[in-house]
Amino acid sequence: MIIKYSKKIKQLSKLSVLLMLAGCASKTSTKWENYTDEGTFLVYRRQSLIGEESYTLSANKDTITLSSLQGENERGRISGVQTNLLLTTNLTPISYENKRIRGEDTISNLTVDVKADKIIVKEKFFDTVEHEKLDDFFPLHSNISAGAEMMLYYYCLEKNLKTVPTLPRNEVTITFKKKDTAVIKGEKIPLNRYVVTGINWGGRTIWTDESNKLIAIVKANTQIRELIRKGYEDAKQLFIDGNVEEEIAQLKQYTKEVNGDLSAVKALVGADLVDAVTDVTQKNMTVIIENGKIKTIGKKDEVEIPENAKVIDVSGKTLIPGLFDMHAHSNQVQWGPAYLAGGVTTIRDNGNELEFATAFRDEIAVNGAAGPEILLAGMTDGPGVKGNGIIRARSVEEAKEVVELYHSNGYKQIKIYTSVAPEIVEVLATEAHKRGMTVTGHVPIQARHAKKAVELGMDMLSHRSRILTVLYSDKVTKNLKRAVYPTLSLNSITDERINDAIDFYLENKTVLDPTIALDVVRSLETGNPLETIEPDAYRIAPELWEGKRFRAGVSAKKSEEGRETYMKSMEILGKFYKAGIPIVAGTDNVVPVFSLYLEIETYQKYGDMSPFEAIKTATINPATAMGLGEQTGSLEVGKDADIAILDKNPLEDITNIRTVSAVVSDGRYYNSNPLWKAADFKPKE
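C-alpha cells predicted for Amidohydrolase family protein:
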C-alpha cells in the first residue's frame, strides 16, 4: 500500500510540474473544468461520404483529454487516423500523438511532448527534434484530425490569437470572414466562417457555432474534402459554396499581387524560338503580340516594333509554346499562379467538384484571374464503395443526366472512372458525342482491357498500366489486379502484339495520357528523398511536404522491379508515338507543376523521343487532341500568345524545360517569381 501510494504521489507530482511549466495552474479556465463532450464528423471526398470521425473530450480540474478515431473507406482502401491530445485547462498543449492505421499496420505520424525546458517532436520521415519552449504553440500537421483541429480553434479563439506558431513547422493564421446561417431541420443556426492558412496548401474554410465549437471544414491539398459535424449534413451545400467563395476571393487577391502586364501590344525581343512546328531553333527572334494574339514572328533586325508596344528584352532566353498538363486535379486556386509560374498555360482538369471547377475556370476565363486556361473533364463513376465522387452513372437514365449536367456547365469531356459498367460507358460516350464532347479516363474494371474501352466509345485513355492492357486483350482477366503487369510479361511481348496494338489505336484515333511520372515516383526506394528523381521537390509549399516530398517508398526489390516496368513501358509507348499515336503529357499531380517536367523528361529518356518530340507531348499534341490546334499549342502567327520563356534551350537538353523564368498567357506577361510567391512555393531548409 505504501509503495502504491508513493508511486501515485510521484505521478501527481510529475503532472503538476508539467502543468506549471505549461503555464497552467494559476491560469486555469473554469469553462473547461469537468467539461465533457463527444461528437462525430462525417468525412466526404468530392462530396461523397467515405467515412467518419468520432471524438470524446473530457476534463478534470487540471487537464483536458481529447481522443478521436477517424475511419475511411476511400474507393475500397480502408484506413484510419487515431489521435490523442492532452492539454491544460488553459488549452496549453502537454502532449500530442497522431497515428495512421492501415490494415495491420500502425504508423506514428507525429508525437509532440512538452518537457521542463523543451518540446520534443518526433515526426515520420524525420529525426527527433528538440525545440525551445514556446509561450504559444500548437502541434499539428496536414493530417490533423477534426477533433484536434477543433481544439486548435478553441485555443486561437479563446486566446484571441490570429496567428499561432505550430510544430513541427509553420504557423497557422485564422481570419474571420462572415456570419452564415445554416438551416437544420427548419431551424436557423448562426455560424461563424473563417479561413485558416498554414495547415494545408493555401487555406481551408471552417465554420464554428456561437460557442466556438467546430461544425465543418472544407479543405484541399490536391483533393477536396468536407468534414461536417453529424447533424449538420443538411448544410453541406452551404459549406461547399462558402469554400468556393473564399477560394475565388483568394485568387482575386493573388491576381492583384502578381501584376501581369496588360499592355495591348507587346514585343518580346531577342530570344531564340522553338515553335513546336519544326525541330530547328530560330535564333535572335522578335515576337509581336497584339490583343492576346501573335501578330508577327521574325528576325530581331527585320521586325519593326510598333511605337505603342511594351518592349520586353528576352535576349539569351528561349521561347516555347505554353505547356499543357493533360491530367490535372486543380482543387484549389493556388494551382493558378503555380501553373503559370511553371510555364503551363492550359490544363485539362480530369476530375473535380463541379462548383469549384466551374468557378475556378470562369474566374480565369471571364474575369482575367491569374491562371491557365482550364478545360474540364467531368468525373463520372458507377455504383459501390469503390466509386469516386458524388456524380454516378448507374443506369441509362443517370448516364444521360450526367452528360447533360456536364455539357450544360461547359465541360469538354466526360471522364470515366473504374466502376462504370460497360453498357453505361457506351451510353455516356454516345450522349457525349452527340453534344460534341469527347470521352476520356480509366479503363473500367468490368471492361477489363483498353481495347474494349475504346470499342465502347472512349476517345482517350489515362495511365500507363491501363493503356498497355491493349497488349493483353486476349489474356486479361478480373484476377489481374489493377492491370499492372510484371516486367517479365512486358519483356515477353512480341513485335506482332505491339504492331497490332498500334494498328488498333491508330484506327480508332485514340489519344494516350500515360502519367508515367506516377510510376517513377512510386518506384522510389525507401530512404531516398524525392529529390533523387524530382530535383525541384524542395520547392513545394511546406504544407505539402508530408504527402508529396516525403514518401514511404518501397523495398529495394520492388523499386528495381518498378524501374524495369516503367522503362519497358516507355520503350513500348515510344514505339506507339513513333507510329503516330498521339501521346499527351499529364501528371495526376504527384509533385504539383514539377511532375509535368518529370513526365516530359521520362518520355525523352526512356521512350526514344527526341527533346523536340517530347516537348510536343505538352504543346501541339494536346492542343490538337482537344480541338484547339488552330488556336494554340505552337508559336505561329494568328495563334494565342501562350508562351513559356526559358533561361535555356530545351532542345539542347530536355531538363532545361525546368528553367522557366516568365510566361505569357492570354497575352499577359508575368515574371515567374511573384507567381511562385503567390502560390506559396518556396524552398525549405
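The first strand starts at residue 36 and ends at 45.
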